[in-house]
Amino acid sequence: MASPDTEVFVHVRIVLGMVVSLGLARLLLGSARLVQHPGQVKPYWVHLAWAFSLLLTLIHFWWWEFRLSTIGTWHFTLYFFIIVYAALIFLLCALLFPDSMAEYSGYKEYFYSRRGWFFGVLAVSYLIDLFDTLVKGREYYASLGPVYPWHIGLGIVLSITAGVTRSERFHAAFVIASIVYQIAFITGDYATLR
Fold first, then answer.
1. What percent of the chain has pLDDT over 70?
2. Cβ-based neighbour number of residue 29 at 10 Å
3. Is the pTM of this model over 0.90?
4. Cβ atoms of residues 170 and 161 within 8 Å
């Protein structure tokens, strides 16, 4: 018979799977809508790059959360925190692809009009990522190396800056750097599940 903590982890994994699936569905449906109705709403490459970055984030988050199986004792606060973290990632997906684009001429106008919300949630998700990492233990935190705290700190600063600036160069550089970092981190550290 499974231990109570194993049963709790299975429950958490199921709930996380549902939230991650909703985020993934939002990204895929939003992207498919661009293909289905190419003349209806004008796409914007920076917006699409953030959609790709969030796709990587969702995949990475799901893989990363396997580490939750190593947590010995579960409690409601930890459970609540993990669900909030997943919900923030879903919210980022929903902010990228709204239910209606009727008020906007295209995704460029929409993206910049909602940048404060999007990057505010992204900044909070960096903070929660740090807490999530610490919950998995000091050994796990140390295994990420000295780059990890810099990644979190820089991510928060860049997100706050992105929330207040409309500079297309800044936004382009930020999303490209985000994608490159994620790909490097995933391929370098997660080639196998440790």
1. 92
2. 12
3. no
4. yes
